[in-house]
Amino acid sequence: MQILSIPKYYDFWWDTAAPAERNDIVLKEQAVPTALFAKEKVPFYREHYKKFSSTDIQRISSFEEFVHIIPYITKEHLATNHPLAFLPEIPNFEIDPNRGRYWMFGTGGTTGKPVLVFHSMEDWRGMSITANRHIEFDFYHDEAIAGHFSFERGTAFFEGLESRRTPLVNARIVGAYNGDHITNNIYANMLHRLGSEFYWRPSAAPTVEDIYDSTQCFRANGLLAPPEGGNDRKGAFLRAILEQDARQKDSFWDLSHRFNPDFRFIFWSSMPISEELLSYLRTDLRLPYIKGHFGSTEVCPTASTCSHRMRDFHLVFGHSLVLLKSLEGKESVNPDELGYMLVSKIGATNSRGQNILPTGMIFLNYMTGDAARLTRATRCQCGRNTPVLYDIQRIEFSSGKSRHGCQVA
After folding, report:
1. Disulfide-capable partner of 342 in 7, 236, 365, 376 (CB 3.0 to 4.6 Å)?
2. Angle subtended at Cα 30 by Cα 296 and Cα 107, rounded to the nearest 5 degrees
3. Under a CB-based contact definition with an 8 Å cutoff, are residues 397 and 110 in contact?
């Protein structure tokens, strides 16, 4: 498999590099090579890209051209084709000990038919390292967060790959998502690599009481939970856990007690968080670290929050690319203009820590059914200079989302 000439996914370069330089590398070293690989090696794309040649792909020189030239795919494409049609045909001599083993997940059925998604171990490793970086960045560059913690900068190892040491080394996180939800799996990899302990109920749908009891049993100092809502297919909601806590004030695990020095981490994904709940976590509970991720079952975390824009999301880059197309046509939109989200999986990491092209199901210009706005790349107070995704809203498949659960934050 082709080794990509790009920085490691744990390198903060992805968050601070000159935007023009970063865009040029992402396009020329990741997006275009992945599209060429898909046309040559992936059955679905050989058919889907028949109307243009490999030369047409090689000539793409901007993200605007990538949106216009590379046809987008939808959930209907996934539902009407066998999952193996999206997997590359890899010659036997290129297969290493990790390749050929896939993690399989089902989507929420928003098109009326749930579909299976296969991630290779290389894809999964690249996703989790990229997401790790956004957590680590907070503690190294965001003074609003780092000032609440005292930690020794060092190096921890997980699966043979290094990770800078953060306060998460001492964290014990309980997962409140349902056992089969993809959020549990991606967070388990992320948090273990960062040195923390992570507990969840992999074979059952946890109730609020289950999660509350687990936090007491493991003496947890953090939670991973969907923020709030009425669809129990996601898991036990944070708001309900807080309400349960308010009824159990004699418990030693007292999240509602603002001076509890041990409880300090909240992670969330899969749905938006309200201003009201966010304000309660930050102002009333005074929790020093709150982190939200945005992503999909197909591409996993593609953006994450910072302490200064807690309801908006910085693009993470690395394993993925997020672009916006016009609601009416095939053109890309201007900054801050509402457009359909197109996500692409354009990178993976092998067992030797080298960045490579994806080896699981390939997703290029995949339209999730969400719309959003994307800012220009400017420096944020948190230290990042990556574009910010905001005003995220579900435009397509909204009835399916409400019935079947949300796989997208």
Report:
1. 365
2. 15
3. yes
Q: Which residue has the higher pLDDT, 14 or 92?
A: 14
- Evaluate the CA torsion angle 11, 14, 20, 25 in order and state its sign: positive
Average pLDDT, the chain: 86
- What is the distance between the alpha carbons of residues 151 and 168, in angstroms, rounded to a whole number? 10
pLDDT band with cut points at 50, 70 and 90 for residue 152: low
Contact 371, 338 (CB under 8 A): yes
Pairing assessment for the beta strands 309-315 and 265-268 based on DSSP bridges: unpaired
Q: What band does 104 get if pLDDT is binned at 50, 70 and 90?
A: confident
Which H helix or E strand runs over 139? Answer: helix 121-141
User: For residue 133, what is the enclosing H or E element?
Assistant: helix 121-141
Is this model's pTM higher than 0.85 or not? yes
Quote the Cα angle for 314-330-53, to 5°: 105
Angle at 102 between CA 96 and CA 104, to 5 degrees: 175
Report the largest interatomic distance among the alpha carbons of the chain, rounded to a whole angstrom. Answer: 69
Q: Is the Cα dihedral 386, 297, 157, 264 positive or negative?
A: positive
| The two three-digit tokens of residue 406, written as one number | 């949300």
pLDDT(143) > 90: no
Phi, psi of 133 (to 5 degrees): -60, -35
Q: Which of 301, 223, 310 is nearest to 275 (CA)?
A: 310
Cα(209)–Cα(403) distance, integer angstroms = 24
